[in-house]
Structure formats: structure tokens, C-alpha cells
Specification:
163 residues; alpha/beta; Dihydrofolate Reductase, subunit A; 10 strands; 20% helix; 35% strand; binds NADP nicotinamide-adenine-dinucleotide phosphate; DHFR; DHFR_dom
Length: 163
């Protein structure tokens, strides 16, 4: 099974200058809880935006650069998205697509579930989440709206599933 996990601003922005534009510790905790012990799939740019290889998760990094290597036993570098789709789409093992914009846009039509964090503010950025088609997904879960103690940002967890 393929799932997407993403935090999206009100104007669909998800990042800028290859970094996140907000800091919501509770969202990072949820990201860790959902993805730990599982496979995470990401574009090369998102991988390079991370502090390093995240513990307790198998990383699949997508790049067109055939010479790109990461010397870590928990990292696999691949060069085509079809490899991800073929391996996980009909598997009982879940792989979480964790970004970024290019990878979300190319895989959104192949995922069964989206774990969204909606951030109730617009941000200036250079990377956006693709438009979600309401014909394709329905709401499976909506949390209450929380306020981040640290940033004051309002946010909500919303899970969507393929209809
Ligand atoms: N808010 C969130 O939840 C969230 C989550 C993740 C990321 N982000 C943000 O998103 C931004 C990064 O996103 P991005 O769109 O710039 O980059 P990205 O999707 O992370 O990575 C793009 C790279 O992936 C590789 N790639 C893309 N399509 C490919 C294909 N079909 N086959 C092989 N390789 C392919 C290419 O790598 P090469 O150039 O090496 O060939 C491309 O440059 C950052 O600002 C990050 O902070 C936000």
C-alpha cells in the first residue's frame, strides 16, 4: 500500500528554499509515530533537506542521478517511480511518500491514503502540494483543530482515503 504524509499550508504551499516553512513539534511527533518502522519514499531534494537518515525507517530516495549514493544500510537509491509503484501499490507493506512537491505530484494518483496536516495559514514558498481531487478521495478522519504552543499556528490532522 502507498500512502502520502504531508503538511500543507492554506495556500497549498509545503516548502521553500528546500526547507519547511513552519515548526510544529506535535506534527513532527505524529510524522515519527506514523512512519517509524516503515519505509519512507522521498525525492533527492527532500532527503537532502533532512538532518540525516532518520532512525528506524527504511529510506527510498528517488533521483535521476545514476552516480548518487548514500552510504547507509537503511537507504536505497532508485531511479524510477515505477519501481516504487510496482513494489508497494498492491503489497500489504505500506510505504509512506514523504515528499517533496515533485514526488507528491507524480504519485498522488497511485496512493490509497493521505495523512494531511492542514496548517491554517498561507505561506510564501516555492513548492506546493498538488490539487486533491474530491472525486478521488474522501475524508476518513478529522481531528479537532489544535493550536501549536510554540508557533501559535492552528493545525488539524485529516486522513483521506481513496474512494
Ligand atoms: N510540508 C511537508 O510535509 C513537506 C514534506 C516533504 C518536503 N517538503 C518540502 O518540499 C521541498 C522539496 O520538494 P521538491 O519538489 O523541490 O523536491 P523533491 O520532490 O523532494 O525532489 C525532487 C528530485 O527528485 C528526483 N526526481 C523527481 N522525479 C523523478 C523521477 N520521475 N525519476 C527519478 N528522479 C526523480 C530528482 O532528483 P535529481 O535532481 O537528483 O535527479 C528531483 O530533483 C522542500 O522545501 C521540502 O522542505 C515539505
Amino acid at each position: 500500500m502507498l500512502s502520502i504524509i504531508v503538511a500543507v499550508a492554506e495556500n497549498n504551499v509545503i516548502g521553500g528554499d528546500n526547507t519547511l516553512l513552519w515548526h510544529i513539534p506535535e506534527d513532527l511527533k505524529r510524522f515519527k509515530a506514523i512512519t517509524s518502522g516503515n519505509t519512507i519514499v522521498m525525492g533527492r531534494k527532500t532527503f537532502e533537506s533532512l538532518p540525516g537518515v532518520l532512525p528506524n525507517r527504511k529510506h527510498v530516495i528517488i533521483t535521476r542521478d545514476k552516480s548518487y549514493t548514500v552510504d547507509n544500510e537503511n537507504v536505497e537509491v532508485i531511479h524510477s517511480l515505477s519501481k516504487v509503484i510496482n513494489k508497494y501499490k498492491n503489497s500489504s507493506e505500506t510505504a509512506f511518500i514523504i515528499g517533496g512537491g515533485e514526488i507528491y505530484a507524480q504519485l498522488i494518483h497511485n496512493v490509497d491514503k493521505l495523512f494531511l496536516t492542514k496548517v491554517f495559514k498561507s505561506f510564501d514558498g516555492d513548492t506546493s502540494f498538488p490539487q486533491i481531487d474530491s472525486e478521488e478521495f474522501s475524508v476518513d478522519f478529522e481531528s479537532e483543530i489544535f493550536t501549536c504552543e510554540k508557533s501559535g499556528l492552528k493545525y488539524q490532522f485529516v486522513d483521506l482515503v481513496r474512494k
